[in-house]
Amino acid sequence: MIPRQEESKTGNRIKILTIIFVLFTTGIAASGFEIISCFLFSFLYGYTLKYFGVFLAAFMFATAAGAFLGGYWKKESPVFQLYICEFIFIVLSLCFYFLPQGMSAIPNNAYPSIFFCLNLMLGFVTGLEFLILCCLYHSIKSEKSNAGFLYSVQNFGFSLIAAVFIYTIPLPGLKISTLIILSAKLISFISLFTLWKFQPHRTKV
């Protein structure tokens, strides 16, 4: 009986670390793509400050909407939902990687709409994944105040990648910066296998 309890505790620790890591990489992806979006848009369209505010507003609104609507999702298969979120992040990585070449075939006046939609998608999946990860974490730890800790983990990812991109964007370039995010989310996607058999109880964050 005791070995099984120890095995269960070890499994829970691994699951908690996986949740924290996935959330950390989500912070990296969200902040990183927001920075890349501003740099790439200014490179393709011109240095237009008003659009930066519009893109940031779209991202923040979609983040709130994703977290809010995520509360109404069925929680029977949260890990599968996480796989969908991670897959969307990977698709976004590829979009930002190939965007400079593809934009040459698109009229200039369509650039703002494209970047606006990308920021909406980025914000929505960020908020949605945060809500799902909070529910998973809460069902393991059963702590009343877990959202603040998880939010700080995500913010650490925000700040870390912003500091890294100070050097990677001007020197190696936007594509290398995008590959950094893509690598982080691929590892995050693979790490979700540790949660595959884990189905939490219904909880509210």
Please tell me about this protein's structure.
Residues 200-205 have low confidence and may be disordered. This protein has helices at 2-44, 49-70, 78-102, 111-141, 147-168, 174-191. The protein has 205 residues and is an all-alpha fold. The chain has 6 helices and no strands. Helices cover 79% and strands 0% of the residues. The protein has one domain: MFS general substrate transporter like domains (Growth Hormone, Chain: A), CATH 1.20.1250.20. The longest helix has 43 residues, at 2-44. It starts with a helix and ends in a 14-residue tail after the last helix. Helix 3 runs antiparallel to helix 4 (111-141). The radius of gyration is 18 Å and the shape is elongated. This is Major facilitator superfamily (MFS) profile domain-containing protein. The chain crosses the membrane at residues 20-45, 51-73, 80-99, 111-137, 149-170, 176-196. Keywords: Membrane, Transmembrane, Transmembrane helix.
